Fold:
Amino acid sequence: MKILHVAPMNVAGVPYNMMDMQRRFGHGSRLVTLHANDLTFPEDICLHLPLFRDPVTQHWRRFKAAHTSAHPPVLRARNMVERAVFYLDDRFRIGRVQSCIDKYGLDEFEIIHYDGGLDFFRDARVARRWKDSGKKIVCHYMGSDLRLRGIHPAMDEISDLNLTNESDHLNLHPDIHYLYIPFDASLFSVRTIESSPLRIVHSPSKRSMKGTELILPVIEQLKKSRNVEFVLVEDTPHEEVLRIKLHCDIAIEQVGNMGGTGYGRNSLENLAMGIPTVTEMTDDYLSWLPENPFILADASTLLDRLIHLIDDEDLRQRTRIRGRTWIEKYHSYEAVNSQLMNLYKSHGII
Structure:
């Protein structure tokens, strides 16, 4: 099969891993990203389109998300100014998109897997054309796609299959299926020697989304009774983050559930390295996630959970083994590819 992935950005390397997984199983897969990621995750084909990240734009996006009653939220221009910005931005990218389609033969792909649920253009013109020509369309929602931005009505209408890596998205869309994030744990070795003192790492993509401001006071309180080193990793290239985590013994993913539902690529790396990982999960995740390998905590219990881990070496060792076993069972390329192929078959994509 020839499978094309189109993504706004290679967020946390997940779209790239989807492509890499499918290549591993013999499919002709490519990934086109509209915007370059800023954490040095690998790219395949990148259009390097400009991305609006100024404070005014980010505030407006949060405002729209907070003032919608649609379920799921719907992506649309809210006023004449936003419509004009969308129109001009689409006009700007016409030449670059068409050049990419021609250069890489994108019209030849059979399955178009939209990692993010968005087309190259806001009117979904390319996705519509591909759908009309008989191609299968998959919309794969990641991160905060449905929470903050919502669905694109035209994309939702033509989608043959909707996927998500986020548990709470299952409650935001009436016809969506959970897919584990594909992850190649064989690239990582499990830690066998611990640091002295123990090193606790927290590497938020955004402090506000990971509850960092709730975590920091707990760490200061912890240091009064336990000899530990806290490592806060921010705005750091991905390869350097991995080098830092190689020498850490406990990880804190998040508390507060303010931008996620429990875990993502960062935690998968931790588990693959054998680093016990503390996180807070939503109730719906806890209700079905099998063989949960995480140490669960919220802001009120984080201190106790950390002390328990620090004081119990056997617990750390058991958690280390359980985490690595779990990631290989549920997140391996083999497991996720099998899950995805079954979904493709049940939805008439293959």
The CA atoms of residues 31 and 275 lie 31 Å apart.
